[in-house]
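Hey,
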Amino acid sequence: MRLAGPLRIVALVVIVGLTWIIVSVLRGGPGSGFPHIQQLFTSPEDSVTAEPRARKYKCGLPQPCPEEHLAFRVVSGAANVIGPKICLEDKMLMSSVKDNVGRGLNIALVNGVSGELIEARAFDMWAGDVNDLLKFIRPLHEGTLVFVASYDDPATKMNEETRKLFSDLGSKNIKDLAFRDSWVFVGAKGVQNKSPFEQHMKNSKHTNKYEGWPEALDMEGCVPKRTMAS
């Protein structure tokens, strides 16, 4: 019975000590001897070492476009399985989800001043009629923006007039476009120089990513709006 008093004191000291340790751990104070325990109560968002998520802008671009520019992303089809995509100012103009893409050349015409979609169509360049494509791009108005994404085969039915029209829109690779090549392009009616927005991947059994097809192309950028006087 004589030990009851000292035992109570020891128990009290232990309780106070444990309480101090727990409070110190939770507060993360300098008295904490268990920094790894403290991490269990810290969310990743609170950690100073956590990397911030990369912000995405219109059409998934890593940075915003300057004023008077249109944000775009053009993705060619992957082999003959995954359809192409054309995005402008965060609006999907053409895609498999919209059910308006097809084998060949997928083309979206856009008003270069307002950025509004004029028309979007797919042209079969394997078994289709190239005259349908010619009727589509011959009468373009000055300043019309032309967004193009290939799918499967973009060139079998292409003739010299078709290549000349795309060259006049600013394409530098159209002369070499061939069977099952991948091609993405943004041009405009009335441009003076070759477009900086173009990618071309040749169909080659030595470099193809897919059997019989090269890899898909993914091009993004900021195209300047046209002015009424241009």
